[in-house]
Amino acid sequence: AEMAKRLGFNWVRLHDGAGITKWFSLERQPGQFKLEGPDSQLDHLLNNKLMVLGLLDSSPPWASQASFRKPDGPYNYFWNATWIPQNREAWKNYCETVTAHFKGRIDYWEIWNEPYVGNFFTREWDAENKKKIKGDGSDYYKLVMEALPAAKSGNPDAKFLIAVRRGEFFEEFLKNKPVPDPEAVTIHIYTPQHLGSPEDYVSGYVKSMREEAQGTVLEKKPLWNTEGGMGPSAQHFYRRMEPTSHANRALDMASGLVRYHLSFLVNGVEKIFLYSFHGVGHWSEQWVVMGYDDSLPPHASALSNLFWQLEETKLQDSVKLDFGWVFFFAHAERPVAVIVPNISQPKPLALNASLKAQDMFGNAYEAKKVKPSWPIFLPYQSGQKEGLLSNLKKGL
Q1: How far apart are the first and last CA of the chain?
Q2: What are the b/e assignments for 61-97, b being 16+ CB within 10 Å?
Q3: What is the pLDDT of residues 93-110, one digit of tens each?
Q4: Would you say 11 and 273 are in contact if contact means Cβ atoms under 8 Å apart?
Q5: What is the tens place of the pLDDT at every residue in 246-293?
Q6: How far is CA 383 from CA 132, 153, 235, 334, in A?
């Protein structure tokens, strides 16, 4: 938690490695909430000045059909906890109890993790075919409409987010009445593509959601990408790769993740959560920021530079040039432009030294030391935007 804050991360989402608010863990027996452990874990995050996004999700087996599924066995989150609650009064009681208990410490709540994914939102067990039957958009709509008043009763000041994606789950909220009025709508985007422009995959995704929501209460709701990354990669390349071969891959990771975050910022997504900070997942290799031995890979440095460069800035303008995009982030004292070269750029940009450009790690920019696709940071003075653009065109 301390390292995350020092690098520039400001939020943590309570999922998987930090399942502090999950019903499955908090109320193993009906009416017996165990909150001492979660309290101390949460205090550790808050003491390091991290904002917290809680999750209202999962079901203890006594409140769902999990006891009817196979295989039986000890705690296994994917089999036991992600069933749709059957005991709906118990579900509402959990939402009220937990939001009341954490009031003032957790005031932002996302309702369920990825209900649109089959294994994460199971309605019932098909004994004949020995498989789970997935819940649909109507199941999630009903769950949300039960959770909201109960959770609001626990904490009237709390803000709530609904977890949808393009298609059925989003449409369910657009066609039913009443339509909930959440603080934000959450999406999860994983993609191996190197992003970084208003014409990329994220742009198309956001645009289609806005078009679907046109004329509804959800039309202008903020979008939060509460989980995501660039897809499978080395869990911790110092262990998983030969020392002689990992350098290029590590730098590719860094550039890809900086471009990934920039894409959300320039396409109107308000907050971005990276999965995952620490080396926890075992189901596949992930883009972790901190290794098992507490070491930091190059992309930790690159992300930290991005966060601190853009801290308290606001996107002002996007300009397309022959070699890529230039994004202007406004700030009263330290505005910064970010160049995101085309991924097919054949060679690094030969920038004029007077621009005082920085590479994606915050070092003085030297074309011979960077790759063509690396983002570039250009601090400038307010009112010098047009002059900077002119210099960029001349300096190539």
Answers
A1: 42
A2: bebbbbeebeeeeeeeeebbbbbbbeeeebbbbbbbb
A3: 999 999 999 999 999 999
A4: yes
A5: 677 778 889 999 999 999 999 999 999 998 877 654 444 456 788 766
A6: 60, 49, 44, 12
